[in-house]
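Everyone, study these two lines:
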Amino acid sequence: MQQDDQLAFAAIFERYWQLLVDFAFRRLQLQQDAEEIVQDVFIKLYERRQELDIHTSLSAYLHTAVRYRVYNKYRDWLKQRKSFLIPNLDDVDYSLPAVDMAAYKDMEKSIRKAVQKLPEKCREVFLLSREQQLSNKEVAEKMGISVNTVEKHIGKALRILRIELDKYNQIAILLITMLNSYQ
């Protein structure tokens, strides 16, 4: 390839094209972007063929080049995403209207009451999990019980809360129970 042998370049292209496209696709999940990245890598390889001094295998070199192009694509996506964000977001009023706030407070109060009705151990496990955001393993260690017991307590708590809070929208209940407002 370094001596301008077109057949050598064609053989390299044939051997690695699909492997590299698959490699990029697994990371990007977009076929067109994966193919563009691999095409760019081969264009650069051809343009720099005479000056290249590859110290690793050609396969490793090509995979590394594609990996860096994928990282560049991620960076471009992040830049593009940031450009769509609303400037001065802190100036926006996110407070709920008074009617919605009253409904929210009523639902929050009902959730607290429902949590207080849970059996003692079940409530303790649930609050450690949701309020302090401890993992099941951390709750188990803190309480001196098994992870399986923690999972059973959380499942029981969620079943009881679903029944107790049936009149509220399930999505709202899920969101509220994840907040740190059980005190």
